[in-house]
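I had to read the description of the data format several times before I understood it. The format is easy to grasp once an entry is in front of the reader. For illustration, here is how one protein appears when written out as sequence plus structure tokens:
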Amino acid sequence: MGIALLIVMAYLVGSIPTAVWVSKRVYGIDIREHGSGNAGATNTFRILGPKAGSIVMLVDMFKGLVAVKLALLSAFSWSSEAIVNLQIVLGLFAVLGHIFPIWADFRGGKGIATLFGMIVAIQPLVAVSLVGVFFMMLYLTRYVSLSSISASVAFPLLILFIFREPELSYRLFAIATACLVVLTHYKNIGRLINGNESKVPLFRKRRFRKDN
């Protein structure tokens, strides 16, 4: 299968608007009209609670994983470095699809969960470490944004100093990911500094339900 077709497929997989479909079909609202306006796991956690947020997060992660695994359908023979490069490209197009989903008027989320799904597919041990960082921060602070930022900053540190990843492209990808996540969360960082960032309800349900 050609690279161009794989890229299109990765984008379409990433475009599946999980948060929008869950919020509309189960709760009778459009998640983009509430909270931060983002169609992602963070806003879903905040508005609809942990059950809906967990579902959205897991499916959005799966999108990144599936996009990376599309590399297996390539019709070409690749070196290990070229395979990593292709996986990164496919994963990034899935993230692009999540941010600008063709199935939801190009209004999506920030792509953090889909980005994490990429890492799960490429380096599972690194992903497990990042999960630990994320949920430790979430348990301690109840801030999904701070948890995402902490995990993203830990990503290049793990790659460079713990796992010592040999592929230059992946090292650069880890550094770029950390910078991108911090930049896309600048509003959240401002709210964290000002003390008015919303916490997620880990152990209680939210009020939204689908109208009968």
Remarks:
- The mean pLDDT is 90.
- Residues 1-114 form one domain.
